[in-house]
Amino acid sequence: MYTYESLLAAVVASDGETREVTDPATGEFIGLAPVQDVAALEAAIDTAEAAQPAWAALPDEERIAYLHRAADAIKESSEALAELLSREQGKPLNGPNARFEVGGCEVWTRAAADTPLPVEVVVDDESGYAEMHYRPLGVVGAISPWNWPMMISIWQIAPSLRMGNTVVIKPAETTTLSVLALVHVMNQVLPEGVLNIVPGPGSTVGDALTRSPKIAKIMFTGSTPVGKRIIEASAPNVTRLTLELGGNDAGIVLPDADPAAIAEDLFWGAFINTGQTCAALKRLYVHESVYDAVVEELAKVAADVPMGVGLDEQNVLGPLQNRAQFDVVDRLVESAKASGARIVLGGNPDREAPGNFYPTTLVADIDPHQELVLEEQFGPALPIVKYRDLDEVVRLANELEVGLGSSVWSSDRAQALAVAARLQAGTTWINSHGGLHPMIPFGGAKQSGYGREFGVAGLKAVAEPHVISG
Hints:
470 residues; alpha/beta; Aldehyde Dehydrogenase, Chain A, domain 1; six-stranded mixed β-sheet; 16 helices; Ald_DH_N
């Protein structure tokens, strides 16, 4: 079991090229993160390639046992992992944040281990007999983001290992230590060479990973523009891809919804991880008959949720992870103000204060084509649009090129399901937004990517289908 101090000492750099890591809440220096190059990546890929046949040759039961041991190791060092995550990413320890994320790493690792994937008999009749088997692909290249750096890494690592692949992961450049720590803890129990990590720039290390002919599969969570570059870079090798890309999720509140009853769930749908979640609610459309009441009830909830330094146990909202994202949110809110939208709450950051804190912000009476609505803000600012006509609001929800998640809010489940069927998204939630389950497939529609993660679909996505017929 690691303490925060021993875990940090295990992953900080002592030589070579480095990058200073500071706490986004305070500006405090945390440590030096290693910055590796393409040569280090190529060595890691070779290591993974050499280890893969023996790992794949293990019986499924043995790989399952290894994954459970890795989950045990995560659990044993969970507090140290959560503290490092809180310091580097900025998210508070409590609420749906750092401790929650580390706990999710354990849960998703065990789920990937325990999900059955038996041989499928696809035809067995007078016409013939055929079975579908799922074989390892080889080496999986994983590229994880900075918003949920540990848990999304696990979403990539655990199913890949379960199916007999080895992994080379490149963490986001601003949350390097968190993923190094997670991998370090897991590698205390995994066989050597099975799980490898190479921290470095996306422009060099990430690009080389996606172009490598030795990589059989790329798993990437991040922006749509970067996803498009990965598609282009990997195309000559026909590399398999799972891409979970940008979203700008719409929520539609129908006129029969109870504003007071849904306000808290609306809030967390939008502001989990201080809004830094791909599948967060980022534009809310409310029917005019309940608009004022929904805005009022949502403001009551938002005003009472404490934001501050993550290591303070009372806080459940933190800073934006990096200044670039702070600037995006600031720009979009200022644009909304200039357009005549009404600031219900927040919108007044202290730009000179230490840390990347942007206050919880609700923006009402905004034009549905204002840029705060159309552009994914990825932070604690929610535009609330009034609508009258159902067909028109469905059109507004569907008009963007992205389609990760969406939600419908109503007291009438049948009506909510009817509206949900009209929305173009990978997932539509009813009376909630953004909740994920390790057995429910998750992924995007349109330019929010393709491929599915979690459950049986997630295991199949990191395997090669093999039909045996006759």
